[in-house]
What we know:
9 helices, alpha/beta
Amino acid sequence: MVDPIVLADSARVPNWLTKTPGDLQSSIAAASVTRIQAERWKYLSLAKAWPSQNTLSPSDLIFVPPPSGTAASTSTHRPNETALEALDSDVDILSPRLANAPDAIARLCNADFINKTYVQPGGHATVSLLRQAHQAPTIIILGEGSTLELNETVSPEVTHLQDDVWLILRKGAKVVHSRSNFGGSNSHLYRFLSVTLEAKASYQLHNHSCGCELHRQDIHIDLSGSGAHVDIQGANLVPAASHLDQHIVMTHAHADSQSNQRVHTIAGAGSKVTFNGRILIKKGCPGVEAHLNNRNLSLSDVATINTKPELEIYTDDVACSHGATIGKLDESHLFYFASRGVDELTAKRLLAQGFLATCVSGPMAQQAQVVLSDLAAAENQPS
């Protein structure tokens, strides 16, 4: 069972969560010891993923705002001054995270600083986030009909990184979000992402990752309006003796919303991979279409792969599918290459690269393809 999460005495509590800090503390403590949290942290200790020391100063905020003259504005606040008060009218819909990610709510309340970006209705912005160390929470709110290209890059020199991104898409807003999660082999990465979509909003996530000493990703998406649409493409390579733990919760809270997820992962010798994809369709949500496919390729007999696709449906008239596979390189494919004079190591490298390439997409695809191809080549060298 997960240990209860405790707020620091200095934590700043937003009024959209509770009226008094005591009430919030009790709620967080209760939410953190539920069956949902026990399952969520089944293969990784929360204490390892969430370091107790997480102090930030302005110099730690590596944030590249939109250029001047665009339709977006950015600001950095201390929560104990004006930030959470200013956010109260914007982020009241974040309160459901208290039940499924109480640690993220606690981090938001404990943060020394908050980055906030607002894209004006009908406007467009491009935002780049460079992750080099522990980061203050980032909240990005898109006005009705606005568009955003969001590009996140983890520095390969990073040693410890914990960051939280909260996206709120108003009616008809569109986001193309690319994430390159390529830390060093000894890195400790914990990344939390929350996305809430109103009616006719659209969100695309291109998520490219490698394993490292400790790598956890939590992605929580709520489709809260009719016509909301989400598409996730993920490509991961987990080298020998490294770790990757991914959890995606897709909640359909409104009728006629659609989601599609496709995640491919390659696991090297002695690596540990976990994928938990949960699709929740709430009561009274007909016309939902939701699909999830997770494929895993093991390059060794000693890799550990845990995959668990879930469907939780409380309404009729929906179209849903989920599936997961774990396997090795197809011997018939290797034979095909051999019959045409291609040596075994080259054949394995090409097949591994092709397996991932089908899920490499988005504005940062070229960069991701180079990194993943290099990693695949390294994993298929003679031992």
